[in-house]
Task: inverse folding
């Protein structure tokens, strides 16, 4: 029996013998390979494609707190009737729909018995109230409660009352048909068009719409958000993630090894510190009575809450908070790339009398082009979608001056003071972020000439 | 043939039956309560439910039933995280049974089916619910149904530093008559700005500290909209109203205040603790907050002589269109649809008991919120509280509430965004107002009236 390990070997031999058609042979999908890849594929499906697909679907709905996330129910409320009057429902029709009559008759008594009301109670209703009718549910309930055999529980009284009632208002129905049947019983004279209009309006769940995108395209706030996001990503990327990261990597490259090790660890701290702890440290650092304001006071500079006290310092804080995390990423990557530069080139340049600056300009930077592009690309994408540190520090303030697209999407969909969470709108904003991210990825892949990177080496090893 | 003889079998049967009988009598319930916006002074928001459970258990015991109620409570200090947690938990099926939240949540949550009308589980014409002020019951109603039981009332107040007013030459009579002058509309918001500017110019109050408004979003800011004649909802149709003139007046007022240098243009977003500290230490000339802040300042922030150092009035009128006003923002006990029928019955009974004057007075006095019924004001601990009596008399009669409307959140968010944008100088007042108008009409269409 052939073990699965034998398979690649036979493949290898086959490839060697059939050299001209090698490309086709490589296209063969090995079962083991698929098995090994399965966890990654499942993860990709579960944590990337499904959320993106769901975001895509939700983006075209008006899903919000008031529609709920699940399937909606059907209920006609006084608010619906008020809104429908704007769309042509007449006063009489509204009155017919909202009218409630509770009449004690045989049908009602039978319904009450069927609903499981206490027999003695129903008998008493039959005996004392037959023929009576009431306009108001609360009045009827009060009369029922006065009966000696009335149950103690409000729920039991209410369900007994409902057996005699015909009100369609404020009654939740699982299906449109169920509500339609009730509506037909309450207001049989409605025309079909009006009836359908009422039933349509009674749906409490979310519906599909392109409204979110129209709103985003036309509201003036969108422009401000885009400008803020561009400033945030651009500044953090250029000053910290690439600029500072590269500067640190080069400085550390020229330092003795133990020093390099120590400083690399120190620069890693922002990245490995838990976000909440890290942001609290920034608060201690920048708030009134924090380190920076006290220091500023000592040297006679304006001393105030730097994190939220002015638009300029808020931006500086926000960019620094995120930048120091990104800088360590650049530092690691650039340090690795620097070590790959053949040290002989540097020695040779030193023999020629090159200064450090000349070495950096003529030897190091040209060879660092690829890692710099990579850090730029990777960090653009992660900065575009990051909001946690901003949320925990400036929270987009003062005013909305430091609010970026991702933070606004998060607040719209998941966190706001008035509690009216607009999931659909938030999803639309997130979808745009995904689309922008994908577009940028493609552009970066083209810049990197990704095809060349992954093509087979010209020399066979 | 059986192994056991008849008496033994009978005895076992009886024992088994009695076990069943006992277990049928003993009812165990776990009621979970989540309470938003709850700080150190407002523990009775959920502790009252615990006390009610004890009373209900004793009542059951007297009736010969065994009822065991475990109350599990969670307090949330903020609002954003609380509302997020509840809505997500409810969608995931993990919601608590009882919720303490602002009445404005009734609109969206009832439409989504996350809460159930509490009037289905309890009678509002029976004591103690029958004794609650009818206007508070209205605040807890939506679509013709009562969804919650108001837990407290409050008023939002303009506070004035008496020493600072004296330092700029106000006589005792002038300070004394200020509430009346504010109420009649004679003393406006702009008069206030002039006074705090004078305080700063004369060095009584530090620059930028003359006026200390609330530091974050909240119902307070709608008071300034009303000060300039704004109406939140049309009483006839119930539709939301965007009064552009009033919004302009309100935004302009805060922009002017920032330009005069009596408040910084980045004041929004200041930490609450530092605001409280400044308010309690008399660092602000004038500031506004809630009646309940009195409890925080006197208990936690070291304010000793409140009545000797602080004058309190309604929020003054802004111009001749508006009026001096105050907003009450009752929190309400809500029943969620996560509770089973039995649990909802128990929970509703607990809420009713917790609303009894003596228990509710504990919450009112400790947290400096106003009572919910006439009877509560007669409970000695409440009646003896100088601040509550004073606030009830001077402020409460002039309060109104924000509307229960599932779309109000959209309007609210847009209004506050506009305020922030114009206050910080990111946009002009006109642009901010037209942005609000555009956002709200775009989102709500015919359901909003623009004036």
Result:
């Amino acid at each position: 029996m052939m073990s699965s390990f034998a398979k690649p070997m036979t493949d290898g031999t086959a490839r060697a013998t059939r050299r001209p058609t090698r490309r086709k042979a490589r296209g063969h999908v090995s079962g083991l390979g698929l098995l090994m890849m399965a966890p990654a594929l499942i993860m990709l499906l579960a944590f990337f494609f499904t959320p993106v697909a769901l975001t895509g679907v939700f983006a075209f709905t008006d899903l919000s707190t008031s529609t709920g996330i699940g399937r909606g129910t059907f209920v006609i409320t006084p608010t619906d009737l008020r809104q429908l009057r704007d769309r042509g429902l007449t006063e009489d029709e509204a009155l017919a729909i909202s009218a409630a009559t509770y009449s004690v008759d045989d049908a009602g008594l039978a319904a009450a018995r069927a609903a499981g009301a206490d027999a003695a109670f129903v008998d008493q209703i039959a005996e004392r109230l037959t023929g009576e009718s009431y306009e108001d549910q609360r009045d009827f309930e009060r009369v029922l409660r006065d009966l000696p055999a009335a149950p103690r529980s409000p729920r039991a009284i209410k369900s007994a009352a409902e057996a005699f009632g015909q009100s369609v208002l404020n009654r939740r129905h699982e299906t449109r048909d169920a509500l339609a049947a009730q509506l037909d019983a309450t207001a049989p004279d409605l025309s079909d068009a009006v009836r359908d209009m009422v039933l349509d309006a009674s749906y409490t769940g979310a519906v599909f719409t392109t409204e979110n995108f129209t709103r985003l395209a036309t509201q003036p706030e969108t422009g401000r958000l885009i400008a803020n996001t561009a400033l945030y990503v651009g500044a953090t990327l250029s000053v910290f993630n690439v600029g500072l990261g590269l500067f640190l990597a080069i400085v550390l490259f020229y330092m003795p090894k133990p020093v390099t090790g120590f400083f690399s660890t120190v620069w890693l701290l922002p990245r490995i510190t838990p976000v909440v702890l890290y942001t609290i440290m920034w608060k201690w650092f920048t708030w009134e009575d924090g380190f920076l304001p006290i220091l500023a006071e000592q040297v006679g500079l304006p001393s105030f809450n730097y994190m939220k006290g002015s638009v300029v310092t808020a931006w500086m804080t926000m960019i620094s908070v995120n930048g120091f995390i990104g800088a360590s990423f650049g530092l690691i990557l650039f340090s690795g790339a620097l070590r790959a530069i053949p040290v002989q080139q540097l020695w040779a340049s030193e023999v020629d009398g090159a200064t450090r600056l000349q070495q950096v300009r003529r030897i190091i930077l040209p060879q660092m082009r690829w890692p710099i592009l990579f850090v730029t690309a990777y960090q653009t994408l992660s900065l575009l979608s990051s909001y946690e540190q901003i949320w925990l520090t400036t929270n987009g303030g003062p005013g909305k001056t430091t609010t970026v697209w991702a933070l606004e999407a998060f607040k719209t969909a998941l966190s706001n003071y008035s509690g009216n969470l607009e999931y659909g709108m938030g999803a639309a904003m997130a979808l745009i972020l995904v689309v922008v991210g994908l577009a940028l990825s493609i552009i970066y892949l083209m810049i990197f000439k990704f095809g060349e990177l992954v093509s087979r080496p010209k020399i066979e090893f | 043939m059986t192994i056991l003889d008849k008496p033994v079998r009978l005895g076992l049967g009886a024992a088994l039956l009695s076990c069943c009988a006992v277990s049928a009598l003993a009812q165990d319930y776990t009621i979970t309560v989540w309470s938003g916006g709850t700080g150190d002074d407002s523990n009775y928001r959920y502790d009252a439910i615990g006390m009610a459970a004890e009373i209900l258990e004793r009542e059951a015991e007297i009736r010969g039933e065994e009822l065991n109620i475990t109350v599990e409570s969670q307090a949330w200090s903020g609002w954003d995280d609380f509302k997020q947690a509840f809505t997500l938990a409810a969608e995931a099926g993990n919601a608590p049974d009882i919720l303490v939240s602002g009445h404005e949540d009734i609109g969206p949550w009832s439409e989504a089916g996350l809460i159930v009308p509490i009037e289905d589980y309890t009678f509002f014409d029976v004591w103690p619910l029958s004794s609650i002020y009818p206007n508070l019951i209205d605040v807890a109603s939506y679509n013709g149904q009562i969804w919650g039981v108001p837990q407290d009332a409050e008023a939002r107040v303009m506070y004035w530093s008496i020493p600072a007013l004296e330092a700029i030459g106000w006589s005792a009579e002038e300070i004394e008559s200020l509430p009346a002058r504010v109420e009649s509309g004679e003393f406006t918001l702009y008069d206030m700005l002039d006074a705090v500017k004078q305080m700063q110019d004369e060095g009584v109050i530090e620059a930028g500290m003359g006026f200390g408004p609330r530091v974050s979003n909240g119902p307070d800011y709608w008071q300034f909209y009303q000060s300039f004649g704004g109406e939140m909802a049309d009483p006839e149709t119930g539709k939301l109203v965007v009064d552009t003139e009033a919004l302009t007046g309100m935004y302009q007022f805060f922009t002017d205040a920032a330009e005069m240098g009596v408040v910084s243009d980045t004041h929004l977003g200041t930490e609450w603790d530092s605001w409280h500290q400044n308010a309690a230490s008399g660092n602000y000339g004038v500031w506004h907050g809630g009646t309940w802040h009195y409890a925080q300042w006197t208990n936690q922030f070291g304010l000793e002589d409140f009545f000797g150092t602080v004058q309190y009035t309604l929020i003054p009128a802004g111009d001749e269109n508006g009026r001096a006003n105050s907003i009450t923002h009752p929190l309400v006990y809500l029943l969620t649809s996560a509770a089973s029928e039995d649990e909802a019955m128990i929970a509703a009974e607990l809420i009713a008991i917790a609303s009894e004057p003596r228990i509710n007075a504990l919450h009112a006095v400790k947290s400096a919120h106003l009572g919910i019924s006439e009877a509560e004001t007669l409970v000695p601990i409440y009646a003896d509280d100088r601040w509550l009596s004073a606030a009830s008399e001077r402020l409460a009669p002039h309060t109104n509430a924000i509307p229960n409307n599932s779309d109000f959140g959209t309007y609210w968010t847009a209004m506050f965004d506009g305020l922030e944008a114009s206050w910080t100088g990111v946009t002009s007042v006109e642009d901010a107002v037209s942005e609000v108008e555009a956002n709200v009409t775009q989102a709500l269409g015919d359901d909003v009236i623009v004036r």
Q: What stands out?
A: The longest strand of chain B covers residues 26-35. Chain B has two domains: 5-153+329-400, 156-327+407-450. The first helix of chain B runs from residue 6 to 25.
